[in-house]
Amino acid sequence: MENDQDDSTEEPTTEDNEDEEIDEFDDDETTRDLVVPGEILTEDTENFLPGRGTIFNSERTKIISLNIGLKQVKKNYINVIPLRGFYTPRPGDKIIALVLDKNPVKYICDINAKEEGILKPKNTVKRGKPRGFRGGAPNHQDDSTEKYEVGDILIVKVLSADRLNAPELTTVGKYLGKRRDGLVISIDPPKIPRVIGRSGSMIKMLKNLTNCNIFVTQNGRIWLKGGDIAHERLLIDAIKKIEREAHTVGLTDRMSVYIENEKKIRGIN
Q1: What distance in Å separates the CA atoms of residue 256 and residue 197, rounded to the nearest whole number?
Q2: What are the per-10-residue average pLDDT scores of the chain (269 residues)?
Q3: So what's the pLDDT on residue 141?
Q4: Cα 73 from Cα 60, distance rounded (Å)
Q5: Exposure b/e, 10-26, CB count within 10 A at least 16 = b
Q6: Which stretches within 135-216 are classed as H helix?
Q7: I need a surface site. Which of 153, 205, 252, 264 has the fewest CB within 10 A?
């Protein structure tokens, strides 16, 4: 059926990642000072408020850290960007999911979070309003879980996520659906913004120097596809190096030199 085909037949590219509102490890505003839980970040509570990974003390006279990570001042908020951690689903996130199980009413997906994601059949197909039916004709295929199999890798979007219910997913949308080619690797979700870089600088450089297509998602998983294994291996090694050195300064320039040197050593163009 034409209407049931995944939108993922068109390869995702880096440009889709560059507009994501991800500000962790922002070079101009994230310090390289490592902080620990309970550490006092500031006593200036008139000009600053606690952000992610921080909290007021009981007297509201100090802002203290909840995590091990890097201190970040963003406008009048003080955040602590964790160096390691689980992915926290947010509506609108595009992420990579693995189908773990399915039953007649839903797919159960590993999304690299504390809870598994739920993909309902009605959220795997486009729905229209055919002529002659008020409100649209019923689509009986919405009730089937035959489209995907256990083990399939999907690019999905988070429809809803809260503390009471499992995250609900969809594969309807641009670049969403089953991936039939390429490779998927995983890194710590807090390091993903470093792979993207400021205004997409890092991911553009990675794509240009390795001749690979890259799709980076917020749950720490990265889809990539190159013209050959040598370039794909180089890209994977580069991404792992970024993960290890995410807390350091000047990383984009250093990675450019690293990739150029590795290409000479490995004899690839």
Answers
A1: 13
A2: 47 49 44 81 95 92 90 88 84 96 96 95 79 51 80 96 91 93 93 90 96 95 95 97 88 95 94
A3: 52
A4: 18
A5: eebebeebeebeeebbe
A6: 192-196, 201-210
A7: 264
**Domain range spanning residue 148?**
2-19+88-178
Specify the DSSP element, H or E, that contains 77: strand 77-82
138 phi/psi in degrees, rounded to 5:
-65, 135
Please count the structural domains in the chain. Answer: 3
Count Cβ atoms below 10 Å from residue 255 Cβ, excluding itself: 22
Which residues share a beta bridge with 181?
A: none
Single-letter residue type at 21: E
In the chain, where does DSSP find H-type helix? 192-196, 201-210, 229-244, 251-266
Q: Are residues 97 and 174 in the same domain?
A: yes
At 8, which amino acid appears? S
